[in-house]
Amino acid sequence: MLDTIKDAKKQGRAVLTEIEAKQVIKNAGIKVIETRLAKTQQEAVAISSETGYPVVLKIASPDITHKTAAGGVKVGLKNAAEVKKAYAEIMASVRKKIPKAKIEGIAVQKMAPPGIEIIVGMYKDAQFGPVIMFGLGGIFVEVLKDVSFRLIPIEKRDAGEMIKEIKGYALLNGYRGQEPAHIPSLVDVLLKISALVEKMPEIKEIDLNPVFAHKDSAVAVDARIVLEE
Predict the structure, then answer these.
(1) Which helix (H) or strand (E) holds 170?
(2) Residues 135 and 187 occupy one common structural domain
(3) Same domain, 122 and 105
């Protein structure tokens, strides 16, 4: 974990790549979807075959925060031909829309089984210090802004209260026949993010969006970490 952050700082970077961020999150004890970097179409195909289809391809660049807006994400790719085509389309789109972006390659990951989309985040408030956030993820966080907050550090009781406070709590309990989320796994994610921030004060922001909540687990599908300058 420390090596990942040190490497980024040596390179003068404040933003970790998705692969680096996921490694930090994994080392903190949180389940993540494994992601590997491909620098060519052939590597992307080889990794996809090893990972198992369907896969997701995402642009890997420290200069691109909103990958989807840049045309940098392709999902549900079922075979080598689709991976090759998606790789070429992502590169073409990104180079056209953000020509000055440094491109490290394409991140390849197995497509996660769908679940309830959750966001878990952390930012440092100028007055109060590190604040942890929980809410419904994906488009819900942008449209509904249904989130709860606590100052770090938090305890198990705080994490449970954060989850129950959001208006979408009914969705987590299996609304209208949907599979419920495993609340203890979500509590665990919140506690481990709190512990990570206490241990690594050089982390300025964390954004896990989405975390897929399933009936027996929770897994971070995407991760973003920003370091203090």
Answers:
(1) helix 169-172
(2) yes
(3) no
Q: Measuring CA to CA, which residue among 212, 24, 189, 221 is closest to residue 107?
A: 221
- Report the pLDDT value the prediction gives residue 140, as an integer from 0 to 100: 67
Same-domain check for residues 77 and 161:
no
Rounded to the nearest 5°, which phi and psi values hold at 228?
Answer: -65, 145
User: Are residues 50 and 80 located together in one domain of the fold?
Assistant: yes
Percent of the chain with pLDDT over 70: 97
In our burial notation (b when 16+ CB lie closer than 10 A, e otherwise), range 90-107 reads bbebbeeebeebebbbbb
Q: Residue 207 belongs to a domain with what CATH number?
A: 3.30.470.20
For residue 1, the model assigns a pLDDT of 66
How do residues 137-173 score in pLDDT, each as one tens digit? Answer: 876 666 678 899 999 999 999 999 999 999 989 989 9
The domain boundary residue, chosen from 93, 110, 127: 110
124-152 burial code (b ≥16 CB/10 A, e <16): beeeeebebbbbbbeebbeeeebbbebeb
Q: How many structural domains is the chain composed of?
A: 2
For 115, list phi and psi in degrees, rounded to 5: -150, -175
Contact 33, 110 (CB under 8 A): yes
Sign of the torsion formed by the C-alpha atoms of 47, 51, 57 and 63: negative
Residue whose pair of structure tokens reads 């997701």 in the numeric block: 56
